[in-house]
């Protein structure tokens, strides 16, 4: 029952962010109501729960914790008590020992785990001698860690199904390393594609990868991907062990792929989409000298945006991407009558003080076709500077694809920000057919009779207020982004510019260089030695200057800018011209699903279509999928039919 060093390190890594001292701790009001808490025998004051109990440090009430997404946990009595009383702090009974730093204190008012420097005094108020107490409950951090490490097979989407285990080549599970389901689910689908199987398994032996490693094979991405591919696809490690397989532990691969990323190198849960894009980016970088064998190109496609201002003249912008990120138009739900009836039922039950049961919940059903249509639908762009009108106006933007990749990845934007920047997961089903046709989404390009907007000159563009830019850059924002923010808010102030920055961080052209005049009439942000340094890396001088100007003269940021903006190079169109292309009909071959309320918690599972049937990959567990959750996907992987 003792906590070993490894366990303590795991928990420390899981809760890497240091807890803050609660602002309520130092002046906490404690009621003199005569309550004395016994050392054992605790029970929730409002139900029969005897575990997951929280002691409110204001009035001494003992109540059960929150109900988890899967039905486990408490009955929400402690948090409901806070809503009724506004008594902010509670400590989890069973986590209090002589080492008070290990006690689990939660602030409902601040909505996070906190430190209470006066915890001993607050406990003594209710007659609690912490020095004699033993630990009997896991802290919240420990429970989160265990839920991710020992995730119960029966609680994922196909719970209750009699899963038939699968073994052999291509059916090897990946053991959860404490919190790596996002990695496991993503890699199972990636290595079900022909391009990655060929590159790292069929066309490359382990010995060849070892011999050609540029440095230490342990930190060589090509070597570790080849090792992972042979482990997953050979079948050597997919053999029955007490009617289940043990899977493989991708420790070295995770270490290498996460080495350059501050989030993936932790044990915290991560977004599968962010990991996929980071992984593809790293693979592309390793093939910079040999793009013809780069398997990441099978996911790459071109996007063209057409902007038309009220003058009737147009502008075209092109970029490349690896995923098609789709908004979910809830107003297009096909079951609106059922939703209206459910909302009415929910209101009636709430009026009676009751909650709707899980069986009664009705979720919107939105066809995938409507999500795809949203991508190419006309959209208004406000504050668009028209070089024809020489003023800001509202333009109409449409988008299309210039090429269709071998594998199309669709990202469903289920995670949105509500008022106050509070993240929320849309509880929605997406009706996804086995075969889709996106031929209509191909861009038409510049058409006869269209007239292009004139090139913007230095004289056209306003100057950024360098005072605003300086204040924003001192906060850590990118210099180019700050200039754009100041200009697009007409230099009205720092707050307005900052709000613009937050709203446009994800704009595809956020890193596009501006005219020299817009970059201010002051001296350049860099000297010739920095240009020469980038040129020595093999970059063209013109591209080096663009990158330095866009990155405030920082060489490291400029290097990243070049990799993140392949279209900025004069040679980029030539390489992009070789992007895979073909017809627009695709078949669904993979799904990455997410359980939980946020990308930073919960669990990821993969379903892959193999050999005529669906297979479920839940970490190291692999089996026949009888009821794949096609309508619950977060990422959908399609293979082009032609």
UniProtKB/TrEMBL annotation:
SUPFAM superfamilies: Cysteine proteinases, RING/U-box, UBA-like. It comes from the Eukaryota. SMART domains: UBA, ZnF_UBP. Residues 20-130 form the UBP-type domain. Residues 172-641 form the USP domain. The keyword Transmembrane does not apply. It is an enzyme of class 3 (hydrolase). InterPro entries: Papain-like_cys_pep_sf (IPR038765), Peptidase_C19_UCH (IPR001394), Ub_carboxyl-term_hydrolase (IPR050185), UBA (IPR015940), UBA-like_sf (IPR009060), USP (IPR028889), USP_CS (IPR018200), Znf_RING/FYVE/PHD (IPR013083). Residues 463-504, 525-565 form the UBA domain. Its EC number is 3.4.19.12. Recognizes and hydrolyzes the peptide bond at the C-terminal Gly of ubiquitin. Involved in the processing of poly-ubiquitin precursors as well as that of ubiquitinated proteins. This is Ubiquitin carboxyl-terminal hydrolase. It comes from Coffea arabica.
